[in-house]
Amino acid sequence: AGGRAFALVPGEVFTAATRFAPMLVLSAVAVAITCREWRNAAASDRFLPVATLFWFLAAALGTLMPPTPYGHHFLILLPPLSILTALGVFRVFQLPWLRNNGARRLGTALLALLFVGSVPAMAAVFHIRTTPPTDLMRQVAHSVKEGLGPTEAIFVVNTNPVIYFLAGARVPGRYVFPDHLVERNAATIPGLDADAEVARILGQAPQYIVLDWGNWPTMRVPVQHMVGAALEAHYVRIATKTDGRATMEIYQRSP
């Protein structure tokens, strides 16, 4: 919860694809072998590869549905892809020229090298970080927590919702991620009118509103108007926090 989700950009996708190339090629070949070799197997032996193939196709469809792709979306491909790859590798190791122990050891060593060599790409794609929630998040949460009553809510408009947790604040609704509520490319959730939900939250008069003006251009115009009008009419700015990369402002409801 401490790090921000990062959207993939074309350059990152290309870099990741080149770094992942050995593992991707291996997986593609293994999946192709799985589909080919297990097609003529007995019905009892076909269940696992066929079910896993449908699992993989459903997961692939799931990664394509969100309007904004993020690296962590592709994690759902790993379990079925791993099983399909294992099934394909198993078939490869049944080939006559790989049945002696020396060839198998060599093949196992090559597989290990391919996967270990791809580990740096995982960090590049999924932005693996070792840092906890940033000091900026903690500063904002501390400022909010000092004056927050036990039943009062806050509204973190367009930045990391971990602030709700760090401040011990009541969330204003079911949807707390900017992707769901305020951004131009907001994910489509069945049954959710995002503009109406933002209006409902502002209508509850949250005690504090937290805003990152750097993310303001990514918000939908109707939401900009609603939040701007609420700030102008009912809120005063009480603090500005920055860490040199992001600047957040905290607004408190006027008495």
How many β strands by DSSP? 4
Strand order of the largest sheet: 1-2-4-3
What class would the helix/strand composition place it in? Answer: alpha+beta
Name the poorly predicted regions: 1-12, 127-132
Q: What is the helix fraction of residues, given as a range?
A: 40-55%
Rg over alpha carbons:
25 Å
Estimate what percentage of residues fall within beta strands.
5-15%
Short account of what is shown:
This protein is an alpha+beta fold. 53% of the residues lie in helices and 9% in strands. Strands 1-2-4-3 form a 4-stranded mixed β-sheet.
Keywords, separated by commas or semicolons:
4 strands, elongated, 255 residues, four-stranded mixed β-sheet, single chain, disordered N terminus, alpha+beta
List the helices and strands and how they pair.
Elements: H1 10-37, H2 43-64, H3 78-92, H4 101-117, H5 119-126, H6 135-146, E1 154-156, H7 162-167, H8 178-181, H9 194-203, E2 208-212, H10 221-234, E3 235-242, E4 247-253
Parallel strand pairs: 1-2
Antiparallel strand pairs: 2-4, 3-4
